[in-house]
Design goal:
The protein has 390 residues and is an alpha+beta fold. The protein is built from eleven helices and eight strands. Strands 1, 2, 3, 4, 5, 6, 7 and 8 form an eight-stranded mixed beta sheet that branches. The radius of gyration is 21 Å and the shape is globular. The two termini are 21 Å apart.
């Protein structure tokens, strides 16, 4: 797939947006531990992001947004991810959907313009709700149990979605469902949050990313307009991956987990410089072993930075990319990030796992990269099959 170069390659006010993100990140980082401890949703972070104009970063400039592409958005997500990974995850899903809808020929222009305008004007986030209790990850195939029944006046939607990231604050759900037609079609329906028959069940009590609000959302005969159908096709027509969506998804997810590892690295450096064991009489930073392990962390993060930046730049420049290559970038970056935090723990003994220090939270958060779609096994199997020509 060849895309046209996105306007985000030269997003206006780039230094200004980065400065805004860095300023907000200070407050996000200060609040992150409490949100993690209580599992509370960081509503205040999103109010500040909206006021700073950062919710509309990937909305096209023609609609009043920042016009940013993947490379620039990944920079912002890296900054926010370093401060509060849960906030960054919700923000990344919002960014992905606006980037995709601006480029997708299947998105009704009226709906994409409406959502773009709302994102510019206020607090109006969107995320795709796809995963179900029995279906598992849609990336691994299978028809959704969520059903859209067509009537003369509208669709009636019923189903159960899990891992609905950002559910406490979302204004729009992009729901993956199948129709009740004789030959079912599968696809996306745009559903306003809080319609009658919709309820959020607060089930999210996770090891990491605890403040992401990834609860269950139940739809019980929810009525939506007929024109809420965004992209609904025969199941066979979904077999080929959406390369644009796969690319920005993997870039943004990679940027978040890389940000977590950089937060861990920064804490480790301060720890090594200030920790002076009595038997050593000098900071831990003076030990060659500490220097070597920190150097290894730096090497992993340097590789990550190059991969994220170059791959995002290729996407923005409209170069030919593949979903498998995108998935390999995500695999490499997230595994480097996990290894970097594990290396940091190896130097900090009990201090690294103490809840009074942020390293244990960074470790719990970064481990989510291993289960975040696409998972490593699926990526390796796909790459192996391509190499074998099967």
């Amino acid at each position: 797939m060849v895309t046209t170069a996105v306007q985000g390659r030269a997003a206006h006010n780039e230094p200004d947006f980065i400065a805004r993100a860095e300023t907000l990140a200070e407050g996000f980082a200060a609040r992150a531990a409490e949100h993690d401890r209580t599992g509370s949703f960081p509503f205040e972070n999103f109010r500040e992001l909206s006021e700073a104009g950062l919710l509309s970063l990937t909305v096209p400039a023609a609609h009043g947004g920042g016009g940013a592409g993947a490379r620039y958005a990944a920079k912002i997500l890296g900054i926010i991810g370093k401060a509060d990974a849960s906030t960054a995850l919700v923000l990344s899903m919002h960014y992905i959907n606006h980037l995709v809808m601006a480029r997708s020929p299947t998105w009704p222009a009226r709906l994409s313009r409406k959502l773009a305008r709302e994102s510019v004007e206020g607090l109006a986030l969107i995320n795709a709700l796809r995963v179900e209790p029995d279906l598992g990850s849609p990336a691994r195939g299978g028809l959704p149990a969520t059903i859209a029944r067509r009537t003369e006046t509208g669709w009636r939607l019923s189903g159960h979605k899990i891992y609905s990231t950002g559910s406490p604050i979302l204004k729009w759900y992009l729901v993956w469902a199948r129709t009740d037609e004789a030959e079912p079609r599968v696809g996306q329906f745009l559903v306003p949050a809080a319609l009658p028959g919709t309820r959020i069940v607060e089930t999210w009590d996770h090891h990491g990313l605890r403040a992401s609000g990834s609860h269950d959302v139940i739809f019980d005969d929810v009525v939506i307009p007929l024109d809420a159908e965004v992209d609904v096709r025969k199941p066979a027509d979904w077999r080929a991956p959406d390369v644009a969506q796969a690319t920005v998804h993997t870039i943004f997810v990679a940027a978040i987990y890389d940000g977590i590892a950089r937060a861990a690295r920064d804490w480790l450096i301060n720890f090594l410089k200030t920790r002076v064991p009595a038997n050593l009489g000098a900071p831990l930073a003076s030990l060659p072993r500490a220097q070597e392990i920190l150097g290894g962390i730096e090497a992993k993060l340097a590789v990550n930075a190059r991969l994220i930046d170059s791959f995002a730049s290729d996407f923005d420049d409209g170069l030919q990319l593949s979903a498998i290559e995108s998935n390999i970038v995500k695999l490499t970056v997230t595994n480097n990030a996990v290894a970097a935090v594990e290396d940091a723990l190896s130097l900090t003994s009990n201090h690294g796992l103490s809840r009074k220090n942020p390293l244990e939270r960074h470790y719990r958060d970064v481990l989510c990269g291993r289960v975040h779609t696409p998972q490593d096994d699926a990526t390796k199997i796909s790459a192996g099959r391509v190499a074998l020509g099967i």
